[in-house]
């Protein structure tokens, strides 16, 4: 698949978790469009949308994103996340979307993300999303669950 090809929903529909067009001001459909959104910086309003949707406190969300809580508060005042912070937010949303796809509902997906997991060394999937490698490991684990390797 070419990087310019539109990706099928829900595989890359993280925009819904981030507040959609109302917050993003556009609906990215391709990886390159997401790169542009991330580089421009996502509205800090997405922090509240994501925390509410994921049933996380500001502190829990800050920890999952590896962004200091004080920085998130400052970004809310400023109105825009940096490109690095935006990338972390999009990464979290993509993993949540994938978990929702695998578990076929947001509630069990969130339960799975917040529970210690033997396949992840006893860590919660959510606690691993602060790094690219951790997020990829969570995505790989979701793929194994989808194919019946892990229960």
What layout of secondary structure does this protein have?
Elements: H1 14-17, H2 20-24, H3 31-40, H4 45-54, H5 58-65, H6 69-78, H7 83-103, H8 106-114, H9 132-146
Protein described:
By secondary structure, the protein is an all-alpha fold. The protein has one domain (14-146). It has helices at 14-17, 20-24, 31-40, 45-54, 58-65, 69-78, 83-103, 106-114, 132-146. α7 (83-103) runs parallel beside α9 (132-146). Mean pLDDT is 87; it is low at 1-12.
> Mean of residue pLDDT?
87
Helix content: 55-70%
Class from secondary-structure proportions: mainly alpha
Radius of gyration using CA atoms only? 15 Å
Give the SSE order as H and E letters: HHHHHHHHH
Biggest sheet statistics: none
Number of strands: 0
Instruction: Report how far the terminal alpha carbons are from each other.
Output: 30 Å
Oligomer: single chain
Total discrete domains = 1
Query: Residue ranges: pLDDT <50 for 5 or more in a row?
Result: 1-12
Keywords:
151 residues; mainly alpha; 9 helices; 61% helix; disordered N terminus
Write a brief structural summary.
With 151 residues, the protein is mostly helical.
